[in-house]
Amino acid sequence: MNSKPQKEHQWLQKLVGEWIYEGQPPVSLTGMQSVRSLGGLWFLCEGHSEIHGGGTLTIMTLGYDPVKKRYIGTFIGSMMPHMWIYEGELDSTGNKLTLNTEGPSFTAGADGAKYKDVIEFINDDHRVLSSNSLGDDGKWHNFMTAHYRRIK
């Protein structure tokens, strides 16, 4: 199989580069992220951050599955043993990519929970990542927002 990048991969291409980021309450963090392309089909986002006074490493992979017609990916971090599996889509404006996933609940006693990460481009050099969890009330609750600014 020798696949060629689709138009949907072009959206992911905007992520390529070097970024610095800062998180806003309720989670305070700062860091750097390096994003590179793997053949124009996959995008590897490697992050290094300071959170809660300690260093963490994260790796996000993103791609597009033309059969499913969905964006797909994974997220792992040095601060947790769970691998998050993403599936999502762009909104009608073409500026926001919503990635849905499921994993361990952050609430004591709960078995699992639904989450979504939203990547929104404000412009070519500024993007925002917001992480949300689905509450027992059926509403999405933001638990982390980070602003990324391109440095190269």
Automatic annotation (TrEMBL):
Source organism per UniProt: Candidatus Nitrotoga arctica
Record protein name field: DUF1579 domain-containing protein
